[in-house]
Amino acid sequence: MFLIDLIPAISSYTSVISLILVIVIPQIIWQNTLGMRIVRTKIIDVYGNQPKWWQVIVRNSLAYGVTGGLILSELRLLSSNMAMTTTHFSWIHILIIALTIPISLIIIDLLVELFSKNHRLYFEVISGTDISSTYQK
Predict the structure, then answer these.
(1) What percent of the chain is helix, strand and coil (3-state, nearest 5)?
(2) Statement: the pTM of the whole predicted model exceeds 0.90
(3) Which of 17, 123, 27 is nearest to 70 (CA)?
(4) What is the gyration radius of the CA atoms in the chain, in angstroms?
(5) Residues 40-99: pLDDT tens digits?
(6) Is 117 helix (H, G, I), strand (E, B) or coil?
(7) What is the number of other CB atoms lying within 10 angstroms of the CB of residue 27?
(8) Where are the transmembrane segments (predicted)?
(9) C-alpha 10, offset from chain centre
């Protein structure tokens, strides 16, 4: 019974470790991931240089942690079963509304980014990074 209780914790740690190994470490060392190499892009700082390690960590924490965490939390609350008391149910409604506001701001940021000249998302602005093409004609 004890091992079954550990499965959710192990799966969440596995996700974090995978994110670090597949995305964060390659971006710190080579400025890109496998997918970024395929589309010939790399991460740079605002001056066009290789970003510092903390900029990559801030960028990915905001991009995957905040954005992904908010969306997954909202989906989890929306899919919760109805076997709960009225008090818990009202708290879930409050949490859903509270999570919808930052998710809406993120979606607005994505839409604004589509039409802006710089094409930088909120986590790129905060971390001081950008994406640059490595394609050479």
Answers:
(1) 70, 5, 25
(2) no
(3) 123
(4) 19
(5) 999 999 999 999 999 999 999 888 878 777 777 777 776 665 555 666 667 777 777 788
(6) coil
(7) 23
(8) 6-30, 62-79, 91-112
(9) 20
